[in-house]
From TrEMBL:
One of its GO terms (cellular component) is cytosol. Belongs to the class-IV pyridoxal-phosphate-dependent aminotransferase family. The lineage of its organism: Bacteria, Bacillati, Cyanobacteriota, Cyanophyceae, Leptolyngbyales. It holds the Pfam family Aminotran_4. GO terms for biological process: carboxylic acid biosynthetic process. Transmembrane segments: none annotated. InterPro entries: Aminotrans_IV, Aminotransferase-like, BCAT-like_C, BCAT-like_N, Class-IV_PLP-Dep_Aminotrnsfr. It comes from Leptolyngbya iicbica LK. Keywords: Lyase. This is 4-amino-4-deoxychorismate lyase. PANTHER family: AMINO-ACID AMINOTRANSFERASE, AMINODEOXYCHORISMATE LYASE. Gene3D superfamilies: 3.30.470.10, D-amino Acid Aminotransferase, subunit A, domain 2 (3.20.10.10). The keyword Acyltransferase does not apply. One of its GO terms (molecular function) is lyase activity.
Length: 280
């Protein structure tokens, strides 16, 4: 995968049907999104500046937002207006974050790809295990504005000289990273934590699973106990922006475990993702 090119800093955004410039947004003092984190959002990477590119998975992102809105009994937003705003920003920004407020207003922000993405994809990263109840994610089945637990975990990981955090259950099972879903390889088999453990049903995770199914490969979805993770020879996480990043070192307490950031395994995940997009 080629190194991402530099993109302009945030200079425009879309809010409630309008394309605006600057880096400030005026909201009511009693906005529930500010007071309670009462928003639903999704973050996507726009390939070839096209929302309808199969790798962009625009419809899947909209469907995930719609499911959360239905669960929370919030009104439907103006989907055509959301599409219009995304199309306005897509030629400028390779990454879009679409946020929906409880009354249906939309906020779409654009950003650049991480400047270190190519290095992470080829060399891997260090992850830090976030032990403690302070790092648990609220409403794990939904992407809501209350991401404080994940944000705190990522800040703590960076203080430990790591690039990502691994979240745990109360029993110590590995769940997901602060920004993506986990994948492990051991004894010729792929593993990923099960959804019913309390992880985000990531769109990238779903596409990879679908791709492996199309390739007649079985993925084990049992809980990731400490005895399980010690057997992995390869570890990675996925999300819609990266899309695959191997993990070469995991820090837990005073101990560290090394994994081989094997590019062949990384490519297997990439191939499964791309196969999954064709199965959609």
């Amino acid at each position: 995968m080629s190194r991402p090119s530099a993109q302009p800093a945030q200079s425009c955004y879309w809010y409630a049907g309008q394309l605006l410039t600057g880096d400030r947004l005026s909201l009511p003092l009693h906005e529930p999104g500010l007071l309670f984190g009462a928003t639903v959002f999704t973050t996507l990477r726009v390939y070839e500046q096209a929302l309808d590119h199969p790798w962009t998975a625009w419809s899947r992102h909209c469907q995930r937002i719609a499911r959360s809105l239905q669960t929370f009994h919030w009104p439907e937003p103006d989907w055509s207006r959301i599409r219009q705003g995304a199309e306005k920003l897509a030629p400028t920004f390779p990454v879009l974050r679409v946020t929906i407020f409880p009354d249906g207003r939309e906020l779409i922000l654009g950003r650049s790809l991480p400047s270190h993405l190519h290095t992470w994809q080829t060399q891997g990263i260090t992850a830090w295990v976030a032990e403690g109840s302070d790092f648990q994610r609220s409403l794990p089945g939904h992407k809501t504005g209350n991401y404080l637990g994940c944000w705190l975990a990522l800040q703590a990981a960076q203080r430990a000289q790591a690039q990502e955090a691994i979240l745990l259950t109360g029993q110590g099972d590995w769940l997901e990273t602060s920004t993506g879903n986990l994948w492990g390889w051991a004894n010729g088999q792929w593993f990923t934590p099960p959804l019913d453990e309390g992880i985000l049903p990531g769109i990238m995770r779903s596409l990879v699973m679908q791709g492996f199914q199309a390739q007649h490969q079985t993925v084990q979805t049992a809980p990731w106990l400490p005895t399980q993770v010690s057997q992995f020879t390869y570890l990675a996480y996925t999300n819609s922006v990266m899309p695959v990043v191997p993990i070469h070192t995991v820090l837990q307490g005073t101990a560290s475990v090394n994994y081989n950031p094997d590019q062949d395994q990384t490519q297997q995940l990439m191939n499964a993702w791309q196969a999954g997009t064709h199965e959609t």
